[in-house]
Amino acid sequence: xxxxxxxxxxxxxxxxxxxxxxxxxxxxxxxxxxxxxxxxxxxxxxxxxxxxxxxxxxxxxxxxxxxxxxxxxxxxxxxxxxxxxxxxxxxxxx
Length: 94
Fold this sequence. Notes:
94 residues; YefM-like fold; 16% strand
């Protein structure tokens, strides 16, 4: 859980907040009117967050590079595989 502090108070206590983050391992959320604005985290926490974001981006990139099969028979195979007995085909054009 992060320590929350209003921006007006954070402004007056910035040096102390930095020490709490760096040496105390705390995370501080600065709020305005009770809503979070920014978070103070250690440089080590930031590095971990950036590494997680990079890993996530790589996974998304890998998944998006996969191309779906477009053969007509694959639809029927997928329906059987997942036990789908029927499909909706919208109104027919007459």
